[in-house]
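Annual report, structural modelling task.

Input specification for the beta-D-galactopyranuronic acid complex:
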Amino acid sequence: MRSKALPLLFPLFLLPMSAFSQDDVIYDEALVPAYTLPAPLLFEDGSPVRTPEDWRKRRAELLDLFAKHVYGRTPVGRPDTMRFEPRKRVEGFLGGKATLEEIRIHFSEGADGPFLDLLVVKPSQVPAGGVPTFVGLNFTGNHGVHPSPEITITESWVRARKDEIETGQVVDHRATEKSRGNQASRWPLERIVDAGAALATFYYGDIDPDYDDGFENGIHALFGKPGPDEWGSIGAWAWGASRALDCLETDPTIDKGRVAVMGHSRLGKTALWAGAQDERFAMVISNNSGCGGAALSRRRFGERVERINTSFPHWFADTFLRYNENEAALPVDQHQLVALAAPRLVYVASAVEDRWADPKGEFLAALHAAPVYELLGQKGLGTAEHPPLDTAVGDRVRYHIRSGKHDVTDYDWEQYLKAIHSL
Ligand code: GTR
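The model returned the following structure:
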């Protein structure tokens, strides 16, 4: 199918750009500016992308544009010095139905360099061919995904929210026993294992602690301070997801053809960028990823480019700053990031109360990624209408908007489990 620039006719309320300041958050569709999305199926020179072979070239062009202008280039692949150190194995986990493994992925030769601690929980009974597996990035440490004392508490620096300090879950940026299971509602291990799938999760701060320190620590310190168009934290976390997959590839009980990358919010942005770059991921899940994730930047609804670059200067490449209050100049928009998952399954999930993340913008990105899927002989969303609440739609591009707030819930997991089993 041929595509051309997509003129989208949204209510035109033309305010001069300078009238927007960081404090003028748009929560009213009438204030969304008119915009034209860059076409996924047009090369930068304006010529059409007509065949799957053309798409491979266009894909490379788009990856390069996202690297240069948004997330920064990833300067290293899999390091030669990387090694996997099994540290723990527990049979009969979760009342006998699961096996727990902890593996430390070292990125440099000595034991002092940066590492990633991977927690793998899989069903005790593994069919021939292995289990489908979610690589999920977590916010508080692997011990946060379940209260079991079998899970090792992270040694890494952790962020400290006020409530985590007050309840003694975090002391001096180190996690304590009290933080066990503090993210458990987002990681229904029993449900995942009962559905015959595995979870491989790691703490994103192992790769890069989530604060703006001029890239003195984490993986950036090992590979050198990034240049203005090199990886920020999202790029680094995405790289970590690929290294987790390197490790899983050595495990015969994992079905290599059915590994999904999954993240919520800033880690949903990360999952999209990881899946865009690393085609070994058979499925890409963006849970409430918002600005810099699945939401279209040009809509400027909820969080927008200037705000995210100001609040989190370390997440993106410095080059992304050029687009503060200047989204129309971006050579890409986020539907093209979603399209970079094609022809693999991509799942974009929104929550109705999560207006900061612009659920409609997330839906439209999924919708406008579909032409690429169709070119590759796959079905996209199957509807141009934003679906009703709690109704999953789509085929290789899936979407739902669930009731409730910015979070990961059982409803979301139910859909992700169905999706991974459809592969
Ligand atoms: C918010 C940020 C969002 C989202 C979220 C999260 O403060 O504005 O872009 O990433 O954090 O990751 O929880």
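The two ends are 24 Å apart (CA to CA).
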